[in-house]
Design a protein that fits this description.
Layout lengths: L2 H6 L4 H26 L6 H4 L2 H24 L5 H9 L8 H24 L5 H7 L17 H22 L9 H20 L5 H11 L1 H29 L6
Keywords: Membrane, Transmembrane, Transmembrane helix, Transport
Protein name: Aquaporin Z
Main location: membrane
Length: 252
């Protein structure tokens, strides 16, 4: 194989960023779209609790599809917390983190904007009702489907994002990874949503949280900081821990 053909096989940074944007779009459009169109906005969590399964599966399936489509180009993060956790583990250079995150946020915002546009042509008052209900935003207190408080949201975001990152790093490891990584990652996200949807409507992804909060009104925006900070905290702790526990070089 020639040097030129080898170099051509390596995706450019532009291709990686486009892949991250498209993948995040698919994740937000599929998962949040299901929540908006199928959930009736969770005004009655008891009556509508069965739809949690549909939303959890939608997020998991969207991630599975996005991963197999775009991970060969970018690594398949689609999530600022995953990108920062991967950098903390040494999986990607820190210099790539900022452009990845920008692409992810842009992809997510375009997806929620498309959903908002679809809602403009929905039934009478559908869009107003969706926005008044928070537009599938994350939150605690009155925004929590189960009425959980802020500390519950903080704890669950740190724990679940951390474990999500550990699974991601494990199944995508360059030497110990698996060709079924996309399935494992998608099912992990499904499980995470089954656990955390009733608590804070399940973030583990700051790009997803930003995408919905901008259309959800003042209260989701005022609570957004939790879903920017604590998924990143969980992912970075997991990234540093993975590097120390599983990727450290043995002492001769």
């Amino acid at each position: 194989m020639s040097v030129s053909s080898t170099a051509a096989a390596v995706p450019s940074l532009g291709a990686k960023l486009a892949a991250e944007g498209f993948g995040t779009f698919l994740l937000v459009f599929g998962g949040v779209g299901t929540a908006l169109f199928a959930s009736k906005h969770f005004t009655d969590p008891g009556a509508n609790s069965a739809v949690y399964v549909a939303i959890a599966l939608a997020f998991g399936l969207a991630l599975l599809v996005a991963f197999y489509a775009f991970a060969p180009l970018s690594g398949g993060h689609f999530n600022p917390a995953v990108t920062l956790g991967a950098a903390a583990s040494g999986r990607i250079p820190w210099r790539d983190a900022a452009p990845y995150i920008v692409s992810q946020v842009v992809g997510g915002v375009i997806a929620s904007t498309a959903l908002n546009l679809i809602g403009m042509f929905g039934p009478d008052a559908w869009l107003t009702t969706a926005q008044d209900a928070g537009f599938a935003s994350n939150g605690w207190g009155p925004l929590s489907p189960g009425g959980f408080g802020m500390l519950a949201a903080i704890i669950i975001e740190v724990i679940l994002t951390g474990f999500f990152l550990l699974v991601f790093l494990g199944v995508t490891h360059p030497e110990r990874g698996t060709p079924f990584a996309g399935i494992a990652i998608g099912l992990t996200l499904t499980l995470i949503h089954l656990v955390s949807l009733p608590v804070d409507f399940s973030s583990v992804n700051p790009a997803r949280s930003i995408a919905t909060a901008i259309y959800g009104g003042v209260e989701p925006l005022s609570q957004l900081w939790v879903f920017l900070v604590f998924p990143v905290v969980g992912a970075m702790l997991a990234g540093f821990a993975y590097k120390a526990l599983f990727d450290s070089k043995p002492i001769d």
